[in-house]
Amino acid sequence: MKTRALVVAGSLALTLSLAACGNDDEAQAAEAISASMMEESDEDFPVDQEQADCVGEGMVDRIGVEQLQEYGLLTDDLEVAGQVTDVTMEEEDADHAADVLVGCVDAQAMLTEQFAADDTMGEQEQECINEVLDNDALTELFSLMFQGREDEAADNLMGPLMECMTG
């Protein structure tokens, strides 16, 4: 009986330690993605720490560490390889990544601000652009980009934007 109790206790301890390692890996991966986003942040796409943390945690939660490693976003050492936006994903994971990005970062406000800085556009054109660049459109745009379909993403966006510009 003692032996069986020791085996059960040992198995339980091993299970708990493996689960803890998984949580450590997830935390480390999320932190690496967050840090990478902070490094990539610039005046065109400014990201604060809270937004970067949200993206890191969201991508790890929705896609998973192993899958992010398979895509080449994360190395075996759980460091980011390249840029978050350079990864090509399968459609479902790209949808998850786009949902996370749009949910964590107010991309619509950023783009609206960039267009508003263009003093050659009138108020009506800017309002039209704001309507075209809603969260659903941006989620689709980012999903296509995460799938490596940048040309299609640009084509889908250019038509409606050109309509805004030409009235």
UniProtKB/TrEMBL annotation:
PROSITE patterns per UniProt: PROKAR_LIPOPROTEIN
The organism's place on the tree of life at top rank: Bacteria
Keywords assigned by UniProt, alphabetized: Signal
Protein name, UniProt field: Uncharacterized protein
Signal peptide interval: 1-20
